[in-house]
Structure formats: C-alpha cells, structure tokens
Amino acid sequence: MRSSKSGGFADVFRMNIMSTRSSAVVIDGWKVTDVTCGKSTAQTIVEIPPQGGATYEGLQLHIPPFAGEPVVSDDAEGQGEPYFRTRYIEVGGG
C-alpha cells in the first residue's frame, strides 16, 4: 500500500521476538540488510488474541535503497524519532 507520510510503499506486520535463552540479550540497534522478495505462500492467517491485551510499540523500517535507522511509528510523542535513541528490546533471561 502507498504510505502517505513517506510517499513510498508500506506494509504492516507484527513480529514477535521470542527467546528461550537462559541469559538476557538486548537489541539496541537494527539495520536492514540483504533483502530478497518472493511470492507469498500464505493463504490465510487468522489470529485470535487471548483475552485481555497489551499495547505494542511500533517501529518503522525502510528497506534499501531508503534504509536508515528504525523510527517510532506510534502516533504519540516521539513519532518519527530514532527508535533506539531511548528504547531497546530485551529477550531471554526468563
């Protein structure tokens, strides 16, 4: 779909980062590299969330040739600023 803010093409997906590591790992930077595209093999994806809910922070990634640092995509304070300037993602460690 066409993104109105950047004038480029955009798609939205949710990525869950899970880890079974016994020690924690912190992701404090992210760079898009080696991107390849192929025909989708998905037919239908249905997700029924559990009762309750939580918010997910959004971050926007640009793929080459427009690649750059991920930015905050939420419609709130800090929108458009570099995501990892004040944030990090922690996985593992229980």
Task: Explain the layout of strands and helices.
Layout: E1 24-27, E2 59-60, E3 71-72, E4 89-92
Describe this structure in words.
This protein is mainly β and 94 residues long. Helix content is 0%, strand content 13%. It contains no helices and four strands. It has strands at residues 24-27, 59-60, 71-72, 89-92. The strands form two sheets. The protein has a two-stranded antiparallel sheet. The radius of gyration is 16 Å and the shape is globular. The N and C termini lie far apart (38 Å).
Provide a compact summary of the structure.
This protein has 94 residues and is an all-beta fold. Helices cover 0% and strands 13% of the residues. The chain has strands at 24-27, 59-60, 71-72, 89-92.
Which key phrases capture this entry?
two-stranded antiparallel sheet; single chain; 0% helix; mainly beta; 94 residues
Overall, the morphology is globular
| Average pLDDT | 76
What structural class should be given to the helix and strand makeup?
Answer: mainly beta
Helical amount among residues, as a percent range?
A: under 10%
For the largest beta-sheet, the strand count, sense and barrel status come to: 2 strands, antiparallel
| Strands ordered across the widest β-sheet | 1-4
Distance between the termini: 38 Å
How many strands appear in the DSSP assignment? Answer: 4
How many DSSP helices? 0
Beta strand %: 5-15%
Element pattern in H and E: EEEE
Point out poorly predicted stretches. none
Oligomer: single chain
